[in-house]
Amino acid sequence: MSLIRLNASALREVARARGDLRPVDISRATGIPQSTLSALLSGQRAPAASTLYALSDRYELTHEQLLTMEAEAA
Q1: What end-to-end distance do the CA atoms of the chain give, in Å?
Q2: How far apart are alpha carbons 34 and 60 in whole angstroms?
Q3: Which of 7, 26, 38, 74 lies 20 to 30 Å (CA to CA) from residue 66?
Q4: Distance between CA 16 and CA 47 in Å, rounded?
Q5: d(Cα 35, Cα 71) in Å, to the nearest integer?
Q6: What's the pLDDT band for 1 if we cut at 50, 70, 90?
Q7: Which of 60, 35, 62, 32 is nearest to 48 (CA)?
Q8: 55 and 64 in contact (C-beta within 8 Å)?
Q9: Is 30 left (phi over 0), alpha (psi -120 to 50) or beta?
Q10: Which neighbouring-strand residues pair with 67?
């Protein structure tokens, strides 16, 4: 089975291009709590719709670009 996760590499690439070099910068720019962002970037949590909208709005990425599928660990 596959899990939907945040495409952290795509987000980091675009965020860096915008000057948001650290996760704390992404957090401040989007209003996403640092703890939530950390869990998303590490793949420990799937993003909520509101999180996707905040990231999409700030970084002009589609939801498809922000998401990736991972194989679930057995």
Answers
A1: 9
A2: 20
A3: 74
A4: 20
A5: 24
A6: low
A7: 32
A8: no
A9: alpha
A10: 6
pLDDT digits (tens, 9 = 90+) for 10-60: 999 999 999 999 999 999 999 999 999 999 999 999 999 999 999 999 999
Does residue 70 contact residue 43 with C-beta atoms inside 8 Å? yes
Task: Annotate 50-68 with b (16+ C-beta within 10 A) or e (fewer).
Answer: ebbebbeebbebeeeebbb
The answer for residues whose C-beta is within 8 angstroms of residue 29's C-beta and 6 or more apart is 15, 18, 20, 58
pLDDT value for 74: 61
Task: Decide: pTM greater than 0.90.
Answer: no
Structural element, H or E, at residue 6: strand 2-6
Estimate to the nearest angstrom the gap between the alpha carbon of 13 and the chain centroid: 11
DSSP 8-class letter at 46 = P
